C-alpha cells in the first residue's frame, strides 16, 4: 500500500496516531489510523512540519483579528 497523505492525527507521544489516506482508495471508510511506526519517518516529519506552519498561520490570523476588534 502507498500513502497518499496524512489527513490528521490524534493522541500524543508514543500513542500518537495518524489518519492515513491510501493512494487509489477514494472512500473515506478506507482511511485508517496508523501509528508512526507503520509510516515512513519522512512522511510523518512532513506532516508535522505542515501542521506547525498551519497552526502558526492560524494563530497569526487570530491575533490580527483580535487587534482589529480592540481598535
Walk me through this protein's architecture.
The chain has 71 residues and is of the alpha+beta class. The protein is built from 1 helix and 3 strands; from the N terminus they run βββα. The termini are far apart. It has one helix at residues 41-70; strands at 3-10, 17-22, 32-35. Helices cover 42% and strands 25% of the residues. The radius of gyration is 16 Å and the shape is elongated. It has a 3-stranded antiparallel sheet, covered by helices on one side. Strand 1 (3-10) and strand 2 (17-22) form a beta hairpin.
Briefly, what is this?
It contains one helix and three strands, in the order E-E-E-H. With 71 residues, it is an alpha+beta fold. The protein has a three-stranded antiparallel β-sheet with strand order 1-2-3, covered by helices on one side.
Amino acid at each position: 500500500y502507498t500513502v497518499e497523505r496524512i489527513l490528521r492525527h490524534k493522541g500524543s507521544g508514543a500513542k500518537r496516531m495518524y489518519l492515513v489516506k491510501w493512494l487509489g482508495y477514494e472512500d473515506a471508510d478506507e482511511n485508517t489510523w496508523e501509528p508512526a511506526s507503520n509510516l515512513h519517518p519522512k512522511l510523518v516529519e512532513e506532516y508535522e512540519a505542515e501542521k506547525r506552519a498551519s497552526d502558526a498561520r492560524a494563530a497569526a490570523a487570530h491575533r490580527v483579528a483580535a487587534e482589529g476588534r480592540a481598535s
